[in-house]
Design brief:
The structure is a homotrimer. Helices cover about 75% and strands about 0% of the residues of chain A. By secondary structure, chain A is mainly alpha-helical. Chains in contact: A-B, A-C, B-C. Chains A, B, C: InterPro entries: Gly_transporter (IPR005115).
């Protein structure tokens, strides 16, 4: 179940990488690399920071297959990809929900402070996009708009608050994931952004 | 004592991150991230390279609190921050002095060559600013001007030279730190830069 | 023998870094850093991802000496460096051949999947140039043109295919290296590029 969601998230992230690389007129190899780092970049940073090496995607070849297949698919059907935009957005949102929780769990296993665990979860979910933007020579989109990381952080806080209550870990896990997903969906639907601090 | 200086340095680095992120019109989340990476980026790279994981700031939550508090403070009082410019410059300079020595000491503990230790010290002191500039899509300022890294390197050389003499380690430590700080202060005061190699 | 080639590759990579940094009008320190990361960046990423720390160049000071000497040499004789362009291209090409194989071998020793080993080899050979371009605020050249990574990948595939046959490992090693070098030389000579996917 978790694994399926993880794969869906990986697909969505990989395809989002392909789309950005297209806009930058990268060649085939560049596109594959951007797809790859978008999908695994966050988890890689997390594994490096906590010292869990070789990093995850090196130990499970499935990710590589999924990413390459998704990227090739996105390249071939690139003129049709707009029809999938809503599905991709959903996959992506579900992906960040799950990635956040994977990061938090890894932090807990490494016996880190809850705040650090939430940071790890947020990184897992968002850093792939940051690397994608750096490699494409853009200021990372996550630093300029969108309730993205905020959704991960809220989900992480939910996780640790509910964990204090007598609720089963599995259920806490699901609720926290739903908080991430719902926050993002609502923010996008109602165009909610972080408060603008430049004009007052 | 060292810990206090470390915290002062962290504050100065975090605030310098906030100021750069402001100029790039980043949102609240982007500003916090830039503050964070500016403050801990150098130490994180050092820890990753020598394999000392989880990296330092993950093991001591104090840094997170200090950085977040400094950043929020800088955001709220941003119109007043100019009055603090001299204090911040001093904190920053003291910070690089200390960060350099922390990096060198970690290198020695990992039994690395003195040159590598000096490189680690310089990285600890300067790499946070490099990541800050990359994330803001600028050529890192350290590569274009300012006696910054040079000060770290001179301090590092001083450390290893004095260590050959019969002087107590603590005193060597203090003198090397003073060399870093004095070099930077004098360079800024007298506008000393590296020799220009482009026009001759 | 391998060590000599490794050093030649390091020299070529370091000088290529100096030339790029020149174009960006970096100061002396910036130039040295770019030379350094171009030469050791790929191996550093590889070592971090598989958890082999402290990373290679920290354990063998020779690399540091070679890189600094090459960089100083390139800075002093920068007006003459054009005469060496062909030699440098050859060193660089031989360098990526060897770096690819070093990466693959490290992956095998870490018991990783052949595809991951090939990825490690390609990274070792190409990532230094990627970091160089990111630090210089360019979209990495490897993502936009040139059969560079493709040569590494072909060499990697050759290695694993031949390893199935009853051929001595040393000979497989040499043949795979020749495939990398020949692919790159032929691609540059005949201006072969990856298929353009933008105009059809």
């Amino acid at each position: 179940m978790f694994y399926t969601i993880d794969i869906l998230g990986t697909i969505a992230f990989a395809i989002s990488g392909v789309l950005v690389a297209f806009n930058k007129k990268m060649d085939l190899f560049g596109i594959l690399i951007i797809a790859f780092v978008t999908a695994v970049g966050g988890g890689t940073l997390r594994d490096l920071l906590i010292g869990d090496t070789p990093v995850s995607w090196m130990r499970d070849i499935t990710y590589t297959y999924v990413i390459l297949t998704s990227a090739v698919f996105a390249i071939i059907f690139r003129s049709k990809i707009n029809y999938l935009r809503t599905s991709l957005f959903l996959f992506d949102t579900i992906g960040i929900g799950l990635y956040t929780l994977v990061g938090i769990e890894k932090g807990i296993n490494a016996e880190l402070h809850p705040i650090i665990c939430i940071a790890l979860g947020t990184m897992t979910a968002s850093f792939g996009g940051v690397i994608r933007d750096i490699l494409c020579n853009e200021i990372p989109v996550i630093f300029r708009k969108e309730i993205y990381a905020t959704a991960c952080i809220l989900g992480g806080i939910t996780y640790f608050l509910l964990n204090e209550l007598p609720i089963k870990t599995n259920i806490v896990f699901v609720i926290a994931g739903i908080v991430v997903i719902a926050t993002r969906l609502l923010a996008v639907k109602f165009k909610i952004a972080l408060p603008n601090i430049y004009k007052e």
